[in-house]
């Protein structure tokens, strides 16, 4: 019984000690005396970002350390006399299209992209960001029913 009384007394002191008094001597209230007014925030919806069209590029022919790069799409254009290629790449001058190799047979057209760094990239800080690029190559003969093959794929 003695333990219960001591516990109740300690609890009462704790509650009494936590109460704060206002300057007039009354216990402070957690309810504001005047209503809280909030101004509603309205926003204008921003449109979703649209996909940018691939950046058209032409071969430079002077890239340093060129290597094969896989393209992501190849679409015949101009009644099959040209092929539009699209691929992911880095930004110039750090990554430029060096050349495009086209090998045509009666059954397939093999197209290989080569990229490297521009000689102008010497001493330049290169950011690691991917951009979509496109180039169009002319065929010797219209594509017809031939298959387009990526020469950079293993």
Distinctive features:
four-stranded mixed β-sheet; disordered N terminus
Question: How would you describe what is shown here?
Answer:
With 154 residues, the protein is mainly β. The protein is built from one helix and eight strands, in the order H-E-E-E-E-E-E-E-E. It has one helix at residues 2-18; strands at 55-56, 64-69, 73-77, 82-89, 96-104, 108-117, 131-138, 147-150. The strands form two sheets. Strands 1-7-4-3 form a four-stranded mixed sheet, with no helix packed on it. Strands 2, 5, 6 and 8 form a four-stranded mixed sheet that branches. A hairpin with a 4-residue loop joins strand 3 and strand 4 (82-89).
Q: Give the strand content.
A: 25-35%
Residues in helix, %:
10-25%
- The helix-and-strand class reads mainly beta
* Gap from first CA to last CA: 87 Å
**Biggest sheet features:** 4 strands, mixed
Q: What is the average of the pLDDT values?
A: 83
Q: How many individual helices? A: 1
In what order do the strands lie side by side in the largest sheet?
1-7-4-3
Low-confidence stretches: 1-17
Radius of gyration from the alpha-carbon trace, in angstroms: 36 Å
- What is the succession of H and E elements? HEEEEEEEE
Total DSSP E strands:
8
Q: What coarse outline follows from CA principal-axis ratios?
A: elongated
